[in-house]
Amino acid sequence: MRALWLVRKNLREHLGGDTTQILQTAAALGRLGVEVELCDAAEPDYARGDVVHLFHLDRLWENARHAERIAAAGRPAVLSTIYWPADEFDRQARAGFRAG
User: Fold this and answer.
1) Gap between the Cα atoms of 100 and 20, Å rounded
2) 40 and 56 Cβ atoms separated by less than 8 Å
3) Closest Cα partner for 47 from 76, 75, 84?
């Protein structure tokens, strides 16, 4: 089985709990014979996986677009509901483009 995992672009630059979960689960599935491909492309080839796995419930702007395209491609999909409430971060630390 091939699994195409759609991950955030900066997964390896900005390490977090999601990075640990994704990399460790991919490694465990690999030991079971599942081929896991991590993909951070904006326009992935959904046919590269027998199943497409979405992450990050808090990144709806990405997942909604992917979900529509995955369905149109006729691929089964899975969502891991990793969620990081950014309220405190937004109030105290948000900077740059997304600062408000």
Assistant:
1) 30
2) no
3) 75
In this prediction, residue 16 carries a pLDDT of 82
Ramachandran angles phi, psi of 24, nearest 5°: -70, -40
Q: What is the DSSP letter of 50?
A: S
Q: Report the predicted TM-score, pTM, of the whole model to 2 decimal places.
A: 0.78
Q: Residue 40: name the closest of 11, 76, 69 by CA.
A: 11
Q: Under a CB-based contact definition with an 8 Å cutoff, are residues 56 and 50 in contact?
A: no
Kindly report, residue by residue over 12-43, the tens digit of the pLDDT. Answer: 888 888 899 999 999 999 999 999 999 999 89
Query: For residue 30, what are its two tokens?
Result: 């690999």
Q: ∠ at Cα 70 (77, 31), nearest 5°? A: 40
Q: Please identify which residue in the block is written with the tokens 């699994």.
A: 3
